[in-house]
Amino acid sequence: MMSAPAGQEAAEHSGLHKFVSAVFYAGSSFLITVVNKTVLTSFRFPSYMCLGIGQMITTLVVLYAAKKRKTVQFQDFDKSVLLKMFPLPLLYVGNHITGLASTKKLSLPMFTVLRKFTILMTMILEIYILRKTFPKRLVYSVVAIIFGAMVAASSDLAFDVESYTFILLNDAFTAASGVYTKKKLGIEGLGKYGVLFYNSLIIVIPTLLASAFTGDLHKAVTFEDWVKATFICCFLMSCFMGFVLMYSIVLCSHYNSALTTTVVGAIKNVAVAFIGIFVGGDYLFSWTNFLGLSICMSGGLVYSYLTFNNETSGKNTEGTQELKIHIAEDLKEKYSAS
């Protein structure tokens, strides 16, 4: 199987689509963080799982209605869908469970640095699963992101085996989910809307049963703030933003690589940390942490520049080659005529 260079996607999608989809994903990720924090922290809603179920159901309702109105198209459900989607739903569930478990005992600095290993794992999986190759400059920028995160967290090295295990598993599930999402987008009959719809459809029933079995569903149903209009509004906003976030991830993966989607998420997190220095008052400033964040952000910006600037370079090179071909053909016809 031939390897696909990382810059090959430049020929498939315009630079504007690649850039806008990345910004859309970063913005959606930031907004849902704010909305979820309001629901889970300000209102003290007791169930992460039931909030996720609400987001899945919203995704199913929106896409089913759009399919009925012929706004979007994807294949009807049959047995082949399960084979086409495998193992994406399992990776999504694993990502969700390990993500929640990894936040229990881990400090924020160490959580930040260990989550950055998702980027490295995504790059490795793209090389082995999608057969891609990456320019050395992109590899160096990824190394800079991880190194910066390690510097930022170097002042907080409290070791907890359980939390470290869960977060590294979460990194692996996140990376595999991103890479397989990219792979499934190319399967006939699915596309980005089919991947979104059937991933939610396959997951929602087992998740609902799990929440009922653990008592999570009972806590959510008996939550006292269901009578408050403000809470209902925030809950519905979170459900809708869950759909928007999932769509933005698939869209970013469609126009870019899985690695680019992962790096965009990392840049967003670092940007939020920078904002926390000046807004909110809960950031404990230290020069080591600030230096690490700066290195991490610089690596992310360099990666972004190399990725999106490569689009322009690729088009210029392609245009030059086409010009050379046309000139050669004209000369050939001229000499043949003479």
TrEMBL record:
The identity of this protein, by name, is: UDP-N-acetylglucosamine/UDP-glucose/GDP-mannose transporter
Identify the keywords attached in UniProt to this record, alphabetized: Membrane, Transmembrane, Transmembrane helix
Which chain regions cross the lipid bilayer? 20-39, 45-66, 81-101, 113-131, 138-158, 164-181, 193-214, 226-251, 258-279, 285-306
The UniProt entry's GO CC annotations, sorted and at most eight, read: membrane
The organism's taxonomic lineage, starting at the top: Eukaryota, Metazoa, Chordata, Craniata, Vertebrata
Pfam families referenced in this protein's UniProt entry, alphabetically: TPT
Sugar phosphate transporter domain location is: 23-304
Q: Which organism is it from?
A: Scomber scombrus (Atlantic mackerel)
Query: Which InterPro entries would you find in this protein's record?
Result: Sugar_P_trans_dom, TPT_transporter
Location(s), subcellular: Membrane
Q: Which domain of life is it from?
A: Eukaryota
**Principal place of residence:** membrane
Q: How does this protein sit in the membrane?
A: Multi-pass membrane protein
